[in-house]
Amino acid sequence: MTIDGHTITCARIVVIDSEFDAKKGQGERPGFPVCICAIEIDEDGHEIEHRLAAPYPERLPWDRGDPFLTIGFALGAEAGSYMHAGYALPSPAIDLYAEYMVLHNTEMVRAAGNDSKAAGPTLIQACQRYGVAGMDKARKDEMRALVYSKSELTPEEIAAEQDYCLNDDCRMVLRLFRAMLPRLDLLRAPFRAAFMTEIERIRWRGKPIDMPLYRRTIERTPHIAAKLRSELNHKLGVDIFFNNVWKRSTVLRWMRQNQIPVPVDPRTGRQTCAHKYIKDMLQTYPLLKIYDEGKRMIDALADLKKLEIGADCRNRAWLNPFGTKTGRNNPSTNKELLGLPYTMRSFMRPGPGMAIAQVDIGNEEIGFAAALSGDPVLMQDYRSGDPYRQFAAAALGVLNPTKQQRQVYKACVLGRIYGMGAEALARNLGISKAEAQRILDQMTTRYPVLNAWLERIQIKVAHAMPIVCLLGWSLAATGRPGEERTFLNFPMQANSAELMRLIIAREPSAVNRLRS
Amino acid sequence: MPVINPGDTVTGERPIMTKKPISTEKVVPITVGNPASAAAFIIDQSHMEDFANPEADSSVVECRRPPRGIFFTVLPEEKDKKMVNRAYVFLLEIPGRDSYLVAPEIAKEKNDEDVIRPILLVRYVTMAGEEALWPLKLTPPDAKTNAWNLSALNVLEIASSGKWVRIVSHQKQGHYRHQVSTKTFEEVPPRFTNRPFMDLIDSHFRDRKVLTADHEIWEVLANGSTK
Questions:
Q1: In a domain, A62, yes or no
Q2: Does residue A471 sit within a domain?
Q3: A56 and A155 inside one domain
Q4: How confident is the model at residue B14, as a pLDDT?
């Protein structure tokens, strides 16, 4: 009905769904929609049911020029159908999947019971969570199978798909919407829906793969892997691969022999060399970095066939939005190219006359820490372009700290933000605990406002109150031991994710405000 | 758009629109955020301060010169009025031990002890919100002016004029220098607690107040101690 700039008042809601071959796991664009259906509800509560199928009209029948609110569950799927049919992506919209992930983040983290997070819900699961009548899963599977199994459906089959799409899926989404409505953040939900549809546009485009190189690599994987294993053994001076089998005990022994501290998995109490536990030590121990990069490369090579590449030679995989507790995307580490080790990005190759730019935000977490805490010195250091160098120079009283000195102070700053104590820092840096404590004290002295802010976060977390980010993503304490580390880092990581969503949703004014 | 009556079906090759009876729950009109205006809906992050009562986390009150490298400030005192956040006291300082607060009458009685000296205790707060006591040494009336003491008092005056100040030791020159932050109180407001000044003093000197002439510290000074 009206748009006042910041809000839009809609006189109609339109609940949409579409049926198509999702071509899961094939790296293809989703199939052309068999049907797009919708339930439109006006101010008087009148409902209009829409059943569309090819040939699709030039304009959606519910698009009459006045604002209406589109509602769906995992709208990325419908975004694909819209793009096939030549429609603009729906806006404003509410994606109940995204809203479920926002509302239930803490619950999902708690359910997972470890460092990861439970997978996002299906529509049926979300309905169950809200006590909403769902549908028979067998019916859903049957209708999906019909779409997935045939390229050409008969008019009767299309009509059956429309009935299912409208009377099962759309109705279920509508019931779920009514159930979730009291909890929805209506001001920010459309922004998240815009993100969900835009990432489908990104997936739609895909990443161009150098197929000759990729195929050669696949063909020669056994040979390349054997060579990499041999080279790694040679570089490390020990056979961590014996008869092509990785030996964990050999790695642990090799670490001890090279005075590399061996972390302990807090869950099992056993010594470990898993990537997640040694990654903070890689900058300090170059040998360990050689091991880690080599091992990850060999592992990735074994899974290289799993990279999802479509017939148009482009990699497309589910980006799993909101898939981590901090709200970042969590795509597969073997189906999605950007989940593979960094060096494997060279499989990406632009077509003739095209180019690919990799854009990164430098020192993003430090920038957020400075902005959110209001620490003037950290802000000044961040604006210098290299906050770690500034800190090292000030702490050591030198103009030009060495690369290694900078690295030590960088590890300290990041470690403190990650809730690392003197003991862990000492282990990662290979220095004494007293020395690590001295550096942490230097950080407290240089960034007192940041330090106080981090302490206040811990106090808030101790009250089991949720930490809420700039656009509503939040997490509350679950009561698990050691989770304070998550929370110290959470405002930086999660707000970085909010910023990325803004960038993807192409909202420059919000990005500028966040940056300032 | 064709006009559709309830129950009508718009026919073509297959039905595309059907009008249904009225829904029971009204959901429109509905007002939502404009996704192009996400900036207008950014949540103020000051909620991070919730539950972070600075009074609650200062059970230990330090008594020491403001740490180097940290900006701090002090509260001003009204001229010719009784000081509220400062106090002249006597401290008994023995190397290797925490200092003792000595009652004025006892200090007078023990005026031959050179470990007792007059001090100006001042309440200060760092930019990080840490509240503490600053013991400024005072030059006795019969002694030569000490540049360290004098410069510390100067820094105190500057800090009490509504500024964030950092104290810097200038060893070669034998006095303190200071640096004033460009941050104003509007940008970074000082977070003094509501605790009474005497409460801070009590917190720090809890068990180390010398109120009588038979306090154990006199035995330590007279005959020594292995502690």
A1: yes
A2: yes
A3: yes
A4: 46
Q: Are A513 and B42 an interchain contact pair (Cβ–Cβ within 8 Å)? A: yes
Q: Are residues A432 and A396 in the same domain?
A: yes
Residues of A in Cβ contact (< 8 Å) with B69: 445-446
Average pLDDT of chain A to the nearest whole number? 89
First CA to last CA distance, chain B: 96
Question: Does the distance separating the beta carbons of B22 and A8 come in below 8 Å?
Answer: no
Measured between beta carbons, the chain A residues lying within 8 angstroms of B52 are: 455-456, 459-460
- CB contacts of A62 in chain B (<8 Å) are none
How distant is the Cα of B142 from the closest Cα of chain A, in angstroms?
38
For B187, nearest residue in chain A (alpha carbons): A374
Nearest to A11 among B28, B38, B57 (CB): B28
Using pLDDT thresholds of 50, 70 and 90, give the confidence band for residue B19: low
Distance CA B19, CA B143 (A): 100
Nearest CA to CA, how far is B158 from chain A (Å)? 20
Shortest CA distance from B11: residue in chain A: A51
Average pLDDT over residues A330-347: 90
pLDDT of residue A370: 92
Asked if B31's CB is within 8 angstroms of A9's CB, the reply is yes
The CA distance from A489 to the nearest CA of chain B, in Å, is 14
Separation CA A165–CA A163 (nearest Å): 6
Interface size, chain A vs chain B, as Cβ–Cβ contacts under 8 Å: 197
Give the strand order in the sheet containing B30-33: A2-3, A7-10, B30-33
Residues of chain A positioned with their CB less than 8 A from the CB of B55: none
Q: What's the farthest any 2 CA atoms get from each other in chain B?
A: 113
CB-closest option in B29, B126, B182 to A43: B29
**Domain assignment of residue A273, yes or no:** yes
Per-residue pLDDT at B3 exceeds 50: no
A359, part of any domain = no
B128 and A448 in contact by Cβ < 8 A? yes
- pLDDT surpassing 70 at residue B48: no
Tally of domains within chain A: 3
Q: Which two tokens stand for residue B128?
A: 């990080």
Tokens 């030009």 sit at which residue?
Answer: A400
Same domain, A102 and A81: yes
- Of A180, A207, A234, the position where a domain reaches its end is A207
Specify whether A38 is located in the same domain as A89.
yes
Of A286, A320, A347, the position where a domain reaches its end is A347
Alpha carbon distance A50, B10 (integer Å): 10
Task: Tell me: do A23 and A169 sit in the same domain.
Answer: yes
How would residue A418 be classed by pLDDT, with cut points 50, 70 and 90? confident
At A255 the pLDDT is: 92
Q: How far is CA A46 from CA A189, A355, B4, B74, in A?
A: 25, 51, 11, 67
Task: Give me the helix-helix angle, A433-446 and A403-417, nearest 10°.
Answer: 80
Indicate whether A56 and A168 sit together in one domain: yes
Domain extent at residue A94: 2-207
pLDDT tens-digit map of B87-120? 999 888 888 778 888 888 888 888 788 888 889 9
> Both A26 and A160 in a single domain?
yes
Residue range A138-142: average pLDDT?
84
A111-133: average pLDDT: 85
Residues A138 and A227 in one domain: no
